[in-house]
Structure formats: C-alpha cells, structure tokens
Amino acid sequence: MWTYGGTYPGLTLRRPTGETTRVTFMNNLPPLAGGKTVHHHGNHSVSADDGQVTGSAFLFEPGQTRTYTYELIENGEPERGTMQWYHDHRMGETGMNVWMGLTGLFIIDDPADPGTLPSGEYDLPLVVADRQFDSDNQIQYFYDPSGVAGDKVLVNGVYEPYLDVADRKYRFRILNGANSRSYIFTLSTGEAVTQIGTESGLLPAPVSRTALDIGPAERLDIVIDFAGKLGQELYLMDAYQMVPLLKFRVTQHAVDLSAIPATLRAVPDIGQPTVTRNFSFDFTSNHWTINGLAFDPDRIDAHPVLGTTEKWVFTNPTGSTHLVHVHDVDQQCISRDGGPCYPWETMKETWAVNPGETLELKLKFTDHLGKYMLHCHILEHEDDGMMTQFEVVAPSSVSAQTLNLSTRLKVNAGDNVLIGGFIITGNVAKKVVLRGLGPSLGTAGVPNVLADPTLDVRNSAGTSLIKNDNWKDTQRGLIEGTAFQPSNDLESVVVATLDPGAYTVLLTGTNGGSGVGLIEIYDTDAPGGAAELANISSRGQVQTQDNVMIGGLILGGSSNNSRVVVRGLGPSLTAAGVAGALTDPTLDLRDANGARLTFNDNWADDAATATQLSSFGLAPNNAKEAAILANLPPGAFTAILAGKDGGTGVGLVEIYNLH
Ligand code: C2O
Ligand code: CU
Ligand code: CU
Fold this sequence. Notes:
Blueprint: E1 10-16, E2 21-26, E3 38-41, E4 65-70, E5 73-74, E6 77-78, E7 82-88, H1 94-99, E8 103-109, E9 123-131, E10 152-155, E11 158-159, E12 162-166, E13 169-176, E14 183-187, E15 193-198, E16 201-209, E17 212-214, E18 219-225, E19 233-238, E20 243-252, E21 275-284, E22 287-290, E23 309-315, E24 322-326, E25 331-336, E26 347-348, E27 350-353, E28 358-364, E29 370-376, H2 379-384, E30 387-392, E31 401-411, E32 418-426, E33 430-437, H3 439-443, E34 453-458, E35 464-468, H4 476-479, E36 492-498, E37 501-509, E38 515-523, E39 531-542, E40 549-556, E41 562-569, H5 571-575, E42 585-590, E43 596-600, H6 607-615, E44 626-632, E45 635-643, E46 649-657
Parallel strand pairs: 1-8, 9-13, 12-20, 21-23
Antiparallel strand pairs: 2-4, 3-7, 5-6, 7-8, 9-10, 10-11, 13-18, 14-17, 14-19, 15-16, 15-18, 19-20, 21-22, 23-28, 24-27, 24-29, 25-26, 25-28, 29-30, 31-38, 31-40, 32-37, 32-39, 33-36, 33-38, 34-35, 34-37, 39-46, 40-45, 41-44, 41-46, 42-43, 42-45
The protein binds CU-O-CU linkage and copper (II) ion (2 copies).
One copper (II) ion (CU) binds at residues 288, 322, 376, 378, 381, 386.
C-alpha cells in the first residue's frame, strides 16, 4: 500500500485546538506514483495549505517534501473540536491515491467540549473503508467513473476485527474512508446508539438512532453503551450489505463515570445569507459535472466575499446519490428537500444529496482569502469532473467594476479610423460585448454620423479575431432582445469571451465611409469576478466642436469608489511614428449631467497628481500631454479629448481603472 507513515490508516495526528501545527510530508513513493498533495479534510486551512489539486507550488514529487501549516483557528477562535482526516487530493488521481492507502486521521481536542464524554481509552477512532484484494491479497486500482468499491470492508485497516470492551460507554468517532461505498451502521442487537457529533464537531443535542447512514468522507461521533452486557458479543453491522464490520466482546467490568449531557454545543451564529448560489450535481456529456461543467483548474465558479454569509443550494438531477463536500468552512443546514433537516445534520461539511433532492445550506467565509474546492466525495465522481472551485475575495477588492467604456469620434478612412483598445486582466476569460454605432447617434442629434459602421476586433499581435458589419449577420441570436441590440440594422455588435490580454477594436465605415462613430465596450460578467476590463484606449482623428474625441465609462457593480486615470496623448504618438498627431491635447472629465469634474492641459500641472501618476507608471512621456487622476463613485462619466486652442490631429484617450 501507499501509506502516511507506514500504516493504514496513516499516523493519527491529535492536537489541541488553537495551536499551530506544522506537518511535513516526504514523498518516498516510487517515481511512477508522481507528485502528491495533502488535503486536511474538515480543517479551515489557508488556501495554499488546503491541498490544491495541481500546480508545482502545491504538488511534492517523489524525493521532495512539503510542510503544511494548520493553525486550528476558525473565525478568529480555536476551531471546534472534532475528528478530521487528511488524504491525497491530486487532480484526476484522488481515487487511486486514497485507494492505495493515502488516508489518515487528525483529531482536534477542544476544552470547550463537555469533559464528561467518554475519553482516554474509551474514546476510539474507527476508519471504515472497503477494498478489493486480488488472488495474491494485493490491492489494485481499476478506475471506474461510477465509483470504485471492494467486497471486503476494513475497520482501521483490518477485515472483520474484534474489540474487547468493558461494560460501559464508549465514544467512537467513525470516518467513512471509502472511495464510493455508503454504509448503514446498526448494532446486531437492534439497539440504538447515541449520535453526539458530525464532521463539524458536537451536535446541539444528542440524537438516539438505530440505523446511521454514512457516505464517503462523512463522520459520525457516537456513544455506544455496553452496560449490562458483560460476557456478551455483539456487532457493528453494515445493514446495507448485511455484513458484520466489527465484533465487540464485552469482557471486562468497569465503573462508568462518563455522561452525555442533554445539550452539547450550539451551532455558531453565522447570520443570514445575502447571496444565493445554485450547484447542480449532474451528469453531462458522459461526465459527472457541477452546473453542467467538468472540473477545470483554471476556472473559478464563485467569488464569495470574506466575512459574508451565503446560501448554497445543491440539487441532484441524476440517479445516484452524491456526497457533496465543501472545503474551507462548515455549512449549516437550512432545509432538506423543502422540509426540515435531520436533527443530526445541523452543521457538517459533507452532505448526502439523494437523487431528486434539494439541499439548502448556509456558510460564512471567514479568515482566509483564496481558492478552495467543492466536489462530490465519491472520489471517482470527483476525478471524473464533479468538482469546482470558489475563491474567497476581499471586500475591498470588489470596488466598482468598469461596466462599460465607450469612445466617440469622427471616423475617417486610412490611418484615421477610430481605434479602441482594451485590456482584460486576471487569469480567466471574460465575456465582453462590443458595439460600433453610427446611425443611432444621428437619431440622438449628432450631425454627420458614420452611415454603416464595421467592427474589427484584433489581438495584441494585430490578428483579426472577429469582424462584424451588421449585427444580425452572425450573432443575432445572442444580441436580439438584449440591452445590446442596436436600434439600427447597419450597426455592429460582437459578443466575445476573451482571454486576459490586450485587444484593439477598429471602427471603420463600410466601403471607406466617414462620419462620427462610437465604440462601446461592455463587461457583462457579475461584479467581483476574476477578470476585469482594466483599461480602454481610443485613438483617432481629433477635430473641433462635435468632432473632438469623447471617451465614456460607466462604473458600477458595487457602491465603492474606483480610482481612475484618464490620459490624453498626442506628441508621444508622433514619437511612435504616427503622422499628424495632436500637438497639445487637453482632457475634460465630466459627470453624467455634463458638469465638468476636472480639466487638465498638462499632466504635471499639479505636482501631487504628477507624483502619483509616476508611481503608477502612468506618467505620459511628453510634458504637453494630459492626465487626470480621479476617485469616482459608481455612475457614468465622459472624458473629452480636444486640441488646445482648437488644434486638430490624431489623439489617444486611455482610461485605466486602478480600483
Ligand atoms: Cu476530502 Cu476535497 O476532500
Ligand atoms: Cu475537505
Ligand atoms: Cu457523486
């Protein structure tokens, strides 16, 4: 087997809560076993130490070590005591690695838990997990996306073991460490046991149960009372397969001073959810999926804000039960299938969602920022794709989003077409809508408009990615009936999902036509996403009166202010070889009512602004160029680029959202 520390289950770590614990793992496996990553399941670890599934910063290869730090702190206080566990979590290989033996227990002791519960030698952890043995009694792993199971159920790595017990109460903390198999625990006497806890620590009150179902990764904290049974034998059974798992031989007498208090531990008050997210655990295009998508380490499906509480709704349209596990923080049950939750599932981190069921939970994102997983703990479902990531983001990072940027200018032919540029930052693709307008400006009273605009979106290498003449040409279905549908059929719209990078948009008149045109760029993703429209620039022939260049931006998505830099360039274009550039550009920033907020002729006019522009690397190259630094609330703004004293020429407006 592959083991943690030479035993299966691996070495049990037992630590007092609130005390930072560092665990160094050394990968002594054969080179073929590859890099490993360790997830401390149930712990509230920092993202980097949560057992990220891929990437050289997280995997440690054969011959390498990795040290994980576990602070055992949650919401600023010692984490609740419970039995957690650790296991491998490598992308696509978790099932194999766990099957081969990479599982161990991590018990957190908590002085806040009642001291009267059975303890010491009367408090025993049990790992229940099945395996298949071949004719040489070896374990081999044959991947099967429906779930890998074996015909021998092991308890703490032993098949059909026995335990000599005294005639008193025992506490058993039980982990279902199987890859895919669920069990229903019963006692062979038919008697009830007392459940006192779950994955997430003690229940508010003990619950008496005669049959306890437990899916992969779930834990049960139970008390079995052997009082009055001296000399008897009984079994912990799996009523699912009707097989005995563990024989108890009541061979000794002992005084029992332990007691189960009538109340154990209240669930923490995490407030009311402010955001609802839905996760459908589904089967799509022959794979196990979440919301129709298979796992992609480069995709993050939710960005909860640190310190907030959300409602997560799990549904299961498939014919098999999924065991949904959420990393990072515990979840509290709101409702199961429209009704009340079971009394033994007040707070957990792994949930059985049966076919057709809907489970509503709430969870509060505390302490740590960063990426965490959420997946089915039937490990082959996870490996097949039923996993995704969420990223906890800082409240301050959700400053206003640039929802829209636009540029209006007289479009000429040749070098004097209108060129818009924008930059997408972050590490995921972003959906944008680009519009090229002309005729509808005429309706709005602008004279001499571009009669038939054409859009051309290019990448940073100048390669044309998408062109559109008339919006109905190619993407009509995506545009019609949306807010982006132009009022005139000759206008252009492009809907695109673009990777982070720099892009340019060219607005030209069809057949060399000229006139005033408008480029608009819209960010259509929800606020707080991992990618952003960070900058837009437009370049074109700046003339006078109605033919000055107008850059617009709309900030929104949150009530916070954004720091925005607007630059108006001319002379530096000359330096870059552009003919006929504006010699002395000026910038005029206006609010939605047209009221002037700031005017700038030369960017260094105000020394304090100049220093800040330099520190952002945004100081223009030429002293005659203009720049404005503004702290803007959500709303619509326009920046007007004109030539000083009526000067004309090619100019460039750039808008940067710095947050
Ligand atoms: Cu025990 Cu992400 O898992
Ligand atoms: Cu976990
Ligand atoms: Cu599943």
